[in-house]
Amino acid sequence: MGKIVKGLALSAIASSVVMAGGYKIPEQSLNSMALGAAYVAHTTGADTNYHNPANMAFMDADRSYVEGGLTLAHLPSNVFQSLPEYSGESETEDILIPFFHYVAPAMGDFRWGVSMVAPGGLTKRWETPFQKLVAEEFTLKVVELNPSMSYKIADNFSIGGGLRFIYSEGKVKSDGTHPDLGYLKRDMEGDTFEFGYNLAMTYKPTSDINFAVTYRSKIDLDEEGTATLTGGGAIYDGDASVSVPLPAALNIALSKTWNDKFTLEFNYERTYWSSYETLDFNYGISLLDVNFPLYAAFDTSKAKNWKDTNTFRVGATIEMDNKITVMMGFAIDETPVPHDTLSFELPDSDAKIFSMGFRYQQTDNLSWGAAFLYDSKESRTVMQGMEDNFINGTFHEGGAFLTTVGIAYEY
Predict the structure, then answer these.
(1) Overall pTM surpassing 0.85 (yes/no)
(2) What is the pLDDT of residues 210-224, one digit of tens each?
(3) In the CATH hierarchy, which fold is given to the domain comprising 3-410?
């Protein structure tokens, strides 16, 4: 089991790996970050392999494209406001996220590329007593290798697709005293290697309009590892497993370019989070045979009942006369987490996303730039007595600040 951590984190991010809401990171390049992921219909560089492989068919057939970069994700504290003994503040987090993309020259009407990205993840740590009982640490790392191909069916129509090789590892810790079950502690970690696929198509009704559809498959992350659990005077130290879905995601995008200088793109994303219904950990034996507090705390299925979400994005690209391209974006992003299953490992909420960036064309072959994105989360209040979470208070702040630097080369 990727450890409970994996599971919980996973669930949280499953938004992830593939999606909006939760802890998904759809922005996997300089341009994508600057445009707030409104970057599906009109893609122009090596990152085309990941964001819409069908568009590789329309790139310069004789050239190779390479891009790499690094994103620093700064996650501010989540503040939970309740009665003094239950209030708390999560730790701030700073995470480096690399990316790499390559597109090879065309082979007739075919073309291939490959990307290495980190499409999702979660790190949430609490040191305050009430929160530590649930999430002293929830960490999930996800790495994806995505080779893809495109095929030009006609001068204005192409298709593409690829395989998704995903490796993830996670850790979960909790430590505290439950009013009914006594002292509880868990320390779990594990990993998994999974497979999926992605599909894409692009249609160009005119030379300045692109219509694109992309789809990423659902992937069940069947985490396998070990766990050490303590509670009620008993200890379990052995195998553990959990399965959490990375939901499927559909993108429909339309772009329009004016005078080869100004491009506007609209993007609709549907993330199928409803596949995440329960979080159920399994062990080498039933914990009920070991000790009831262990069973009640760690071996009972937890309802999640996440919902499918919609994300609406708009991005603008302006090519200046001084070798600088300016980009900006805005998005409205729904959370998949319902009130009754909201918890401290992922206190998620609806968000508004603001982004901007630039790219400088240093030479005919080399360009570089930087981008910044702010994910502004809404405050969220949960009332005591709601099923499955037993939380009474308001989550404030949180969100994310992402800064990306990238360099691209064509030859």
Answers:
(1) yes
(2) 999 999 999 988 888
(3) Porin (2.40.160)
